[in-house]
Every structure is written in structure tokens, then in C-alpha cells.
Amino acid sequence: MLSFACVVLAAGAGTRFGAPKAAATTPDGDTFTESIARTAREAGADPIIVVAPKAHTVPEGTRRVENADPGSDPVVSLRLGLAQLANTSVGGTLVWPVDCPFVKQETVTALVEAAASRGAVIAVPSYGARRGHPAWFARDVWLELMTIENGGARAVVRRDEKRVLNVPVDDRAILADIDTQADLAEALAEWPT
User: Fold this and answer.
1) Does domain 4-190 have CATH number 3.90.550.10?
2) For the chain, what are the domain ranges?
3) What is the rounded CA–CA span in Å between residue 96 and residue 134?
4) pLDDT digits (tens, 9 = 90+) for 128-137
5) Is 46 left (phi over 0), alpha (psi -120 to 50) or beta?
6) Is 107 helix (H, G, I), strand (E, B) or coil?
7) Which residues, listed in sequence order, are joined to residue 95 by a DSSP beta bridge?
């Protein structure tokens, strides 16, 4: 199994949500970041980097990186996370937005195993015809993620579709995009924990 990390993008202010989503909780009482970190750890990610606002306490066993500007583009948080991985030996990383806390561990394992077995540079889970999160980025594309001028990680994915491995999964939670309290209520109705 390929060694890999996970970068959790959790630094946003959560303006539409009403509070930072890093501290939002699932019905079992875990924060979104705790839920994501547990799933990533169970799938084998190490280290797990949580890019979070200043006041947020990160889950035990993860490494906290502060993004001092909660209004910045997500690629800023991604770059802060990748910088923490520069001196590690991991072959790639999951990039996991905090607004997708209900993805199953089996989904993450399937994504990483497919990326490893196929030597994928980029791999994304898909449900039906739609791509979701988290995404896999091999170390080979980290420089692109660190230097792309516009569009962030999405632009890197779209730059060359031939190098993107779509991994079909039976997990609609990869499509979650919890930006509001109504989005959370809808997600909980669809994927009760």
C-alpha cells in the first residue's frame, strides 16, 4: 500500500454556514474535522494535516496549520498543508474539504488503492457522472498545486484529463457540499450517522 497523507481544508470562515465549518458537529458529537480525520486515519493516511482557523482545536493525532486569512482561496490552505509534507516520504495526499464529512472509509480506501495500483497522478471519486471529494494528488503534481495561478486544485485536475483517474464509488456523500445549515440538514437526512 502506498504511503499517503491527508490535507483537510478547514480554514474558511463559514459565513453562509453561520460559523467556521471546522467546528461544526455531526449528530454523534464529532466535529467535521474529527470525523474526516478518523476516516482518513482508518484508511491509512499519515500524517493528517488540518489547515484551520486560529481558534480551532484540531483532532488528536493530527497536525494543525493555521491559515490566518479565513477569506482566502482554498488553494492557499492547500499550499500551507503541502508545505508541511515537503520533507516526508509520502507518495501522495488526499485533499479533503471540510464540507464533506460523511465520506465512508471504504470509499477512501478504494480511491487510494485505485490510485496506487494504476500509478495515477490524480484520482477522484465519482458517483454517477459526478466527481466528488476527497481527491488524490501524487507527489508529482504538488509543484503544480503550489504554483498554479488561477483556479486552484480544480484547474490542476482539468489541465489534462488523460492523467485523471475517475474511481466509481457507491457513496453519494462524496458529493456533499455543506455550505449552509440547510445543506447540513439535507445531508443528515440522506446520510444519517
Assistant:
1) yes
2) 4-190
3) 5
4) 989 999 999 9
5) beta
6) helix
7) 7, 135
